[in-house]
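Amino Acid Chain and Its Fold in Token Form
===========================================
Structure side: the spatial fold of the chain, written down as a series of whole-number tokens.
Position: the record begins directly beneath this header, with no further notes in between.
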Amino acid sequence: MPAVDRALASPVEPPPLSASRLLPAVGVALSAVSLFGLYDQPVRPVGYVVLVVSLVAAGVVDRGLFRDLLLIGIGIVIVSLVSVEADISYGNILVLGTVFTAAVLVPFLIDRFVYRRRAIRFPWRGGQKWAPWEKSYLFSVPLLGWLILPFYFISSEVYLNWPAVEAPDEIARLFVGVNAVGTWDELFFICTCYALFLRHFRPLIANLLQAVIFVSFLWELGYQAWGPALTIPFALLQGFIFTRTKSLTFVLIVHLLFDLVVFLVIVHAHNPGLIPIFFVPSPS
């Protein structure tokens, strides 16, 4: 088994859970609620205060915890500098592409060349074959998306959070944007945030912490109304599956299959009759 996969199979054993160590991590995760979920609200600066206080508290309690929470905080702050509301204009694609790349790359480079370790990794192969249930899951995800997502997007009208697309180049940009963001989600929330939380907490706690950040981001992106009823289980499942498979490839395939249905539903909602494959009709 490659060295990277061996490391993933035997992660750093987290110390016993304590409130003094958990609370700073919870604070870092909750800062994302204000910085992402409340991006346009006057209380948003509270997120920066919560983040700084949490990092200071971590530094007092555990230097190693502080170093890892700092990397997560750096990524959160970088993303918070721009609005991630859906906008597929060429200029915004360039801006978001630059910001999202920096949010993953800066913590990665600090981990490699400042901390001189390999805590942040992108394991495209997990070093093991996919189990039958994992293969079945790949088929169930788009099926569940096909059944649930049209009702969610159209009944709640959250499809209006994405721009109307009619011209072929607009549809193409939406497709690229949805898939690019989905790929970035796994690189940042799972391979960066979740992996760093796992160094200090058991998988259940680490997964809940990354899910808070993940869902806050998805809320700003447009998954609002009762969207968290879908995004919370999805974020937790992605973390759980990554723990089981040790494979970025697997969780990325799952995410992109789900996002393929998201793309089709958005096009369907904005263009009645164009993609007649859903039970829920597009708005008239």
Summary: The radius of gyration is 19 Å.
